Amino acid sequence: MHASYRRTTCSLAALALAMGMAATPAFAQDSAAGASADAGTQGEIVVTGSRIRRDPLADESPVVRIDQSSVARTGLSSIADVLQRIPSASGGLNSKVNNSGNLGNPPDGGGVGAGSAEIDLRYLSSKRTLVLVDGIRYVPGTSGSGIPATVDLNTIPGNMIDRVEVLQSGASSLYGSDAIAGVVNIITVAQQVGLRASAQFGTFRQGDGHTQDYALSYGIKGPTTNFVFGGTYVKQEAVRSGDRAISLFPNPGQGACTDPVGGCSSAAVNGRFDTRTNAGPLPGLAFGNFTIANPPNSSPTLANLRPFTAADRFNFAPYNYILTPSERYGAWFSFKQQFSPVVNLHVKAAYNRRNSQNQAAFEPLFIGPDAGNGAGSLFDTMSVDATNPYNPFGVTLQGSGPNKNYSFLARRVVEAGQRTFDQHVDTFTGSATLDGSFQVGAHKWYWDATAAFGVNDAHQSFTGNLRADRVARALGPIAQCTGDCVPLNLFGGAGTITPAMLNYIGFTEKDKSNQQLFDYTANLSGDLVDLPAGPIGFALGYEHRVQFGSFTPDPIIAAGLGADIPSKPSAGRYHSNEVYGELRVPLLKDKPFFNSLEVNGSVRHADYSISGGSTTYTGIGLWKPVADLLLRGSYATGFRAPSLGELFGDRSRFDLPANDPCTSAAGGLFQTNATVRANCIANGVPANGSYAEDQGGQLPVLTRGNRNLKPEKSRSLLFGGVYSPAWARSSSFASALSLEVNYYQIKVTNAIAALDANVKLNNCALLGDASACSQVIRTGNGIINEIDATLDNLDSIKTRGIDATFRYRSPETGFGSFGLAANATWLLKYTLAASNGAVVIERAGTERGSPDQAFPKFKGNGTIDWSLGGIAASFTGRYISGVTENGGADRMGSRFYGDVQLAFSPAWMDHRTSLTLGVNNLFNQDPPACSSCSLNNFDPTTYDVPGQFGYIRLSYKM
Question: What is the pTM of this model?
Answer without folding.
Answer: 0.91
